[in-house]
Batch of 4 targets.
Target 1
Amino acid sequence: MSKTYFSASLRRMVCDRANGCCEYCLIPETIALSSHQIDHIIAEKHSGETVESNLALFCSLCNKNKGSDIASIDPETGEVVRLYHPRKDRWADHFQLQTESGTIEPLSAIGRVSVYLLQVNRAECLTQRKLLSKTRSLTIPD
Ligand SMILES: [Zn+2]
């Protein structure tokens, strides 16, 4: 979690770009229990800069689970694999939403480590995504 100050205009830009939804688990801020957070994709401790191309909108739980991590161990291969990068990767290349269950299925090693580390399939997320899918109010990032 970052302690960096983000200007109001930068906050608005990052929020608008993400349509107010967590860029990892897709949950909209409007239904989250606590406010979404702007943070670095590559943490400052790894020389990540405070620039638009390195910032994303996180829900508080995804941000807490990610922390300053940039990679994890792929549970399938045991290899170190980088996490999903919302500015460099396409969500749909790494994840698939199962609308019936609300589950985010990984489609790649990057998807697997990100689903695992950020715990995007926690119980409350499944329920919320299932309901949002039914009302077609869940946005899959481009
Ligand atoms: Zn999230």
Target 2
Amino acid sequence: MSRCKKISVVVLGSEDHLKKALISLILENELSPLSKTDLKKDNYRNENDICVFTCAAWDDLRKVFADNPDPDMSLLVVNKGFSKDTVCQQVEHLHKETIERTREFIVVQPFGCKESYPFKCYTIDQLFSELIQLANDRNLMPTNTSPADQPGSSTPTSASPMIDGKHSGTEVNLVLLGMAGTGKSASGNTILRKKETFTSKPSSCPVTTECQEVKTVIGGRRVRVIDTPDIFDDEMKSSIKEHVRKVKELCQSGPCVYLLVMHVSRFTDGERGILKKLETAFGSKVREQTVILFTRGGDLEQGGMSFKEFLDDCQPDLQKIVEKCGRRHVLFENSASGSDQVETLMQIVDGMLKKKETYGTYKDRRIKGQDRMGWD
Ligand SMILES: Nc1nc2c(ncn2[C@@H]2O[C@H](COP(=O)(O)OP(=O)(O)OP(=O)(O)O)[C@@H](O)[C@H]2O)c(=O)[nH]1
Ligand SMILES: [Mg+2]
């Protein structure tokens, strides 16, 4: 996809410090070298291909629009406690001065304004979702993800996009969850590339009885693998709470992805209600953070069945679980030594984190906005 034109935004208003704060927010840059009254330079840009035009005085308006006749957005930033009439007059003045009566001026609204106004208003939230939308449409955002990299794609096309300096600082928690004997510990060992780390063996009794964590680095990303006992066993209710508490405590350190481990050769009655139990334990949004990790990929191979055929033909209840988890799934064969399966998993994880980072940046800027604009 080719890169398209930059996003251009005009920021206007009578208060220099508000314009400066908004420009900083939009560009994700501090305009600190400029003093409050020294907003002389008429345009600012950042590496994210957003260009902001402004002017120190209302008199320079014509120049701003002469230099940049067709901006994507023309914003008017107003003070908290603004008067509706004054802003109406300002919008009227802007139309007159720019000799473009059809031009749309959007008033950036301080937090807490619930009134309806005779002019178009954006909250900071709306402004940033509009900017993100524009950037995505034009393929400009560094956080932009192609559909193939989105969570849900089980066949990522790009070669480990997460393996870059940008992500290496974030430690992601991968929590292995599932019923006893499904292969949680074996899958943990596959991810860690060390067969003996977590105890994994055939047994008629649960093998793992306590949560365990082991850290590693995969392709430059710091990863913490958390192995757990079966927390879905109704007969173990008393200890389940403690295991869930432990997982939550471990996951406070960073982003968390739940790996719901299931066996391709068996879908048990106990697994039918597994998502409900997962939600009870970790909250209603848990499935947005879940990837289904199917083990015993070799069994499918032996049966001459592809992973796609397995998913297409599996029981309706299992299909529902797969759907509800956004079709994020990966197939492991824990007795195999290849690293492809881990790479595939990490690409799905990376897609999920990118989505979260985009939201995080956006939320972060909203909070910063509240702070910097003095609107709280
Ligand atoms: N062939 C094959 N065997 C597997 C696979 N994954 C797990 N197993 C075997 O299944 C058995 C149980 O695996 P574990 O990793 O101990 O399962 P678990 O989910 O950790 O079980 P608990 O700790 O009891 O909850 C072990 O004998 C593993 O070697 C796989 O992908 N292929
Ligand atoms: Mg185990």
Target 3
Amino acid sequence: MGKTLLNVEDLVVAFSMYRGDTLKKENLEVIHSLSLDVKEGEILAVVGSSGSGKSILASAVLDLLPKNAIVSGRITYDGKPLSMKTTPDLYGKEISFIPQSVDYLDPLMKVGKQVQGVKGSKARQEELFKKYRLGKDTEKKYPFQLSGGMARRVLISGAVMGNPKLIIADEPTPGLDLELAMETLKHFRTLADQGTGILMITHDIDLALNVADRIAVFYAGTIVEIASTQDFLSGRDALRHQYTKALYDALPQNGFKPIPGAQPYAGSLPSGCLFADRCPYRDDACAGEQPEREVRGGKVRCAHAT
Ligand code: SF4
């Protein structure tokens, strides 16, 4: 694995919002002290349940957060601070984005032209459409003429058009059948093997385990564990956090055991371990803040992980 491309350190994101039906504003913190890094040639999958705020991480990295967002922490690319102000040229070139919503496509432009971009090559677009099994006539279509799966493949083609060094993929596979989802992920793997770093945000841990090098487990607005994919394949004892172990037990191949309880709401988080309400092993040591620490080559926020 090569040098670090993306580094996110102690990221905090809050939204300034009106409280209930009053005119008073409050800051709702949705990302708490989140740290991760993506190296050249690796796929880091950020895995967590749908609706838990993972996409906010992608928006923060891409500097796409709305105006009422209050952000602190450090986001660097290749060692330099990353933002629309300081490094606008990186976005869409060295760093590309596969969004969760197909609404990112321009409804008034034929998709072939959209994928080619301003200076893109038609030959490369045709090559990518072929690779993603988009028929020859697709390039002349408008987004409304595509199925959800086709639109997603067009988005993926657009993201890899310029041979980016870092790809941020936010739920890249919904709308694709299993075969095509696996094929897309295999293509990500090929890109990574050629040196691209990929941050893949997904709710589908099973799919992620097929291609990712490391898995960052997202829970209630932060990363509670970063483990190698090999740790997941080795079994629950190789994992460190109780939520990760519960996720492992909930996989179909491990008996589909549900995780009791629900993730805490951003506005009413517990003061200590965010998973404490659902953890059978909680004790007094879990009541304080759980800083990230290294355990067996991975990272974890749990007082009792060894
Ligand atoms: S810190 Fe405590 S409550 Fe949280 S996962 Fe670890 S053992 Fe469970």
Target 4
Amino acid sequence: MEMNNNLIIIIAIASIAILLIAAIVILKLTGNREKKDTFIITGICDSGKTSLYLRLRNDKVMETHTSITENEGRFPLAQEDEEKVFHVIDFPGHYKLRYKYQDFTPITKGVIFVIDSATFIKNEREVTEYLYEILANKYISENEVSILIACNKQDYLIALPKERIKTALENEINNLRSTRAAGVEEQDEDNVDDFLGYENEAFKFEHLPNQISFIECELKSGNANSGISEIKDWMVENF
Ligand SMILES: Nc1nc2c(ncn2[C@@H]2O[C@H](COP(=O)(O)OP(=O)(O)OP(=O)(O)O)[C@@H](O)[C@H]2O)c(=O)[nH]1
Ligand SMILES: [Mg+2]
């Protein structure tokens, strides 16, 4: 009789354990299957993010003001396939407001990082620190999210070409990662800033698992080669 009771208890415990494991596996699987369909527009203040959002949404060249909250919408890209509805979010660039993008990285499909090419030299450090933070984000790196670096304001004579911006960013990331690597242990597990690229090798964007593209644009100009169509093509490719 006692034997039987023991057996029943063992079977009950085993069943509960199996159910628990099954529940965890199902939760994990459905969590990973969360639909990733969001395109986020990031970059420091005044780079042209809201201008880009408005161009994507209705192809309008409008005067914009410093954003204090995000612009978010689901829409087909202006003058593109109506069937393809994009979820796009433009975040404020102010350093105290920009952190909100982190809530969306688990469902991010693509990142458009906008740079003011005319003031890049002056803002190089801030731009690189923000880009570094995005590249090192757990979800952006694990999901190998594609990144488009839009070198905006090319209408200014002093605007740097995309090749120069790319090289400058690589050099600055190289400097930053050595200082960051030293402080990694202090950070909380979920937000660990991974070392970017290969150790013992100068940083190159090609060393990352993400596909990283650079384009030049002038989002305030309505002319045909403003770069907006390349940005839309990239979004459609990554849809
Ligand atoms: N000359 C020139 N001006 C531009 C271009 N793109 C945007 N601007 C202007 O730059 C300013 C900032 O543009 P926004 O789109 O508001 O910049 P933002 O990145 O959204 O800025 P925050 O919301 O403050 O982070 C505005 O006055 C735009 O009209 C461009 O390609 N050329
Ligand atoms: Mg804005």
